[in-house]
Amino acid sequence: MIVLIPALEPDPALPRLVRELLAADPDLDVWVVDDGSPTDSGPVFEAARTAGATVLRHGRNLGKGAALKTGLAAIACAHPTDDVVTADADGQHTVADILRIVDGLREDAAREAPALILGCRGFTGRVPLRSRAGNTLARATFRLAAGWALSDTQTGLRGIPASVIAWMLSVPGERFEYEQNVLLRSRRAGIRARELRIETVYLDHNAGSHFRPVVDSVRIAIPLLLFAVSSLMAFVIDTVALLVFTAATGSLTLSIVAARVLSASVNFAVNRRVVFGRHGAGRTGQAVRYAVLALVLLASNVVWMQALTGYGVPLIMAKVATEAVLFVTSYGVQRGFVFGRGAELVTAPEARHRNPIASRTRMESDAFDFGRHP
């Protein structure tokens, strides 16, 4: 079992954390990834190495996601059967909580039921406003984007079964959005996740955290924002076509059908490649499922449009109201049914091919240390 700690300008308490973890569980190894910290952080990393940690180093700051991938890739090469617990370097994760995740992974392995274990804070007591607001915003955004609820979307304390590491290396993202992308894509990849309650700890009002609530919450929401832009584009195409076809034919039903066929074709192509990142094989199945969804939405669209215009609502207002109602439903169905089915875990060779982080780090690093120095 390996505890992986990505670190940028870490707290001087990091070496103590390493010592306490190794003393508490002799079967643990601790790996630290220095994500391009300035030279004045050198003594902290040297002390962590002296305490027994394996220290890897980025020559420049690449982001937390990149640091996690560097550590996971190195661990997968050196210890391919080891589970991994990721923890933050800012002092928010206690030794007791880290060991709870370690024990959780061991219990899952004994039951042959591996799962991504998430150490979730309760956010009770004296929680800094910045952290409370950031988590609330991220949690709400996550639930809408992912379709399932998680009490702490920002947690960096996670238990990762060895069988999941190759897939983790294939997930896009190199900064804080990487951890959110893992959560957003995990169910689609057939990975089970469960929560374990941990202590809520903040030191100096969370001054050691590099999470930016607004900026990084926007990064988290990118899939949903892209879907909104794609839907808006389809809406514009659909609306313009509807007006043109209605003026040309005089038939509302025929015009709705023709406009929807045109806008749906564009929407499918954009959502498949840009929003949900699906490429290569599987296009036919996705197109069939999208067509089923489009027919259902079309039927709903016709019913709502006929009803609203029948009550005297102007055509444009009826169109806006109908699309607003169907937007959330469409996103959820496309995420879970149209583009979510058939996802598979990426094999280790594929993950190495699709994740150049480790090899790039070697070239960029001026001190890439792969050895352990007790």
What does this structure look like?
58% of the residues lie in helices and 10% in strands. It has 374 residues and is α/β, with parallel strands linked by helices. It has a seven-stranded mixed beta sheet with strand order 3-2-1-4-6-5-7, sandwiched between helices. Helix 1 (14-24) links the parallel strand 1 and strand 2 (29-35). The longest helix is centred in the middle third of the chain and has 28 residues, at 222-249. It is elongated. The two termini are 17 Å apart. Mean pLDDT is 80; it is low at 203-210 and 341-374.
Instruction: Count up the helices.
Output: 14
Q: What is the strand content?
A: 5-15%
Report the C-alpha radius of gyration, rounded.
24 Å
Q: How many DSSP-defined strands?
A: 7
What sequence of helices (H) and strands (E) makes up the elements? EHEHEHEHEHEHHEHHHHHHH
* Unreliable sequence segments: 203-210, 341-374
Q: What is the CA-CA span between the terminal residues?
A: 17 Å
Which descriptors apply to this entry?
disordered C terminus; elongated; 14 helices; 374 residues; alpha/beta; 7-stranded mixed β-sheet
Write the layout of secondary structure elements.
Elements: E1 2-7, H1 14-24, E2 29-35, H2 42-51, E3 54-58, H3 64-78, E4 84-86, H4 95-111, E5 116-121, H5 129-146, E6 158-160, H6 162-170, H7 177-186, E7 193-198, H8 213-220, H9 222-249, H10 252-275, H11 283-310, H12 315-338, H13 348-354, H14 357-364
Parallel strand pairs: 1-2, 1-4, 2-3, 5-7
Antiparallel strand pairs: 4-6, 5-6
Helix pairs in contact: 1-2, 3-6, 5-8, 6-13, 9-10, 9-12, 10-11, 11-12
